[in-house]
Amino acid sequence: MTDADKVPHDVRASLEQLLGAAATAATEGDDATARAALDTAETVATNKLPAGERRDRVRWGCTAALDALPNADLAAAYAIATAEAVAGSEPSS
């Protein structure tokens, strides 16, 4: 992983929370809440992550989850996979 792919702790926590909320909302059939959380997560990724592979993967995951709605299981799976990609990153020094 390059320095550009490291995720600051506060950004990682925000993204994990938003993506978890999106997955839960999608599973519960609350598409409006899932969309709002995914839109916000994509905005956070765009504005707070440095350009690089990690930012691209998070943004792609948010878009894929949005596109999957109203298929709750698929949208939740994309959101969870994206959260796991964020969680697997190392915090920046």
From TrEMBL:
Tree of life domain: Archaea
Entry protein name: DUF8101 domain-containing protein
One Pfam match: DUF8101
Domain DUF8101: residue ranges: 1-86
Cross-referenced InterPro entries: DUF8101
